[in-house]
Design goal:
- By secondary structure, this protein is mostly helical.
- Among the domains are: about 35 residues; about 35 residues.
- Helix content is about 55%, strand content about 0%.
- The chain is elongated.
Length: about 100
């Protein structure tokens, strides 16, 4: 059994990783080259989706200019009158209720 120094071990590890990476890249290249239809599909679909999104964005901007008010007018708030006689007042309240069932 041979003992390698830490530097030799690191060099062997780096060499192995580099070799494996190169081989995986070569394998992927061969797979893509053999399946040209699928490769073209994988490239074309995201491009088509981006084009569709850009067209939809342009349509929305073109037709929403008439509907959206960018600078709406400022309206003064009416001050709420104070309730002097409780019999004439109406109180409105709301609350969020969360019910959790534990079985």
């Amino acid at each position: 059994m041979t003992n390698f120094s830490p530097k030799e071990t690191e060099e062997k590890t780096c060499s192995t990783i580099n070799k494996q990476t190169r081989l995986m890249i070569w394998k992927n290249y061969l797979v893509f080259r053999r399946n040209l239809k699928i490769t073209g599909f994988q490239i074309a679909v995201p491009i088509l989706i981006c084009i569709i999104l850009v067209l939809l964005n342009a349509l929305v901007k073109m037709y929403s200019d008439d509907v959206i008010i960018i600078d709406p007018p400022i309206n003064d708030l009416v001050q709420v009158e104070r309730c002097l006689y409780p019999s004439d007042c109406i109180t409105i309240g709301y609350a969020l209720t969360i019910v959790i069932y534990i079985f």
